[in-house]
Amino acid sequence: MVARLGKAPWFESFDVDAEVEELLAHIVRCTGFALPERQRDVIMTHARSKLDRTRQAYLDAKAGVCSGSVLNPTLSKTGRSFSIQRTAVQSPTC
C-alpha cells in the first residue's frame, strides 16, 4: 500500500460493522445458512479487535516506536547447526 500525503489511512474510514454485516449477508445468500447470534457476535468482536490492532500498529509506527522483536540467527559451537530465535530488542536511541 502506498501512503499518500494528506490522505487518511484506509482503516480510518473503514466501517467494520457494515463490512461484516455485508459479508454475513453474502454467506446467507450463497449458502442459505444463517449464523446464530452468538457466533455473529464472536465474528464482530474479532473483526473489531483486528482493526484496532491494525490502527494501533499504524500509530506506533507513525510515532516511531523503537522496541520490537527481531530474528536473531545463531550458530552452535561446532558450527554444524543453525538456529533462529525471536529476540526482543530496544534501540539505544529510545
Overview of the molecule:
It is a single chain. With 94 residues, the protein is of the alpha+beta class. The protein has a domain at 14-66. It is 46% helix and 17% strand. It has two helices and two strands. It has helices at 16-31, 37-63, and strands at 68-75, 82-89. The protein has a two-stranded antiparallel ribbon. A hairpin with a 6-residue loop joins β1 and β2. α1 (16-31) runs antiparallel to α2 (37-63). The longest helix has 27 residues, at 37-63. The protein is elongated. The model has no long low-confidence stretch (mean pLDDT 74).
Summarize the structure.
With 94 residues, the protein is α+β, with helices and mostly antiparallel strands. Helices cover 46% and strands 17% of the residues.
Low-confidence stretches: none
The SS-based structural class is: alpha+beta
Helix content bin: 40-55%
Strand content: 15-25%
Q: Total number of β-strand segments?
A: 2
Biggest beta sheet attributes: 2 strands, antiparallel
Q: How are strands sequenced across the largest beta sheet?
A: 1-2
Write the layout of secondary structure elements.
Blueprint: H1 16-31, H2 37-63, E1 68-75, E2 82-89
Antiparallel strand pairs: 1-2
Helix pairs in contact: 1-2
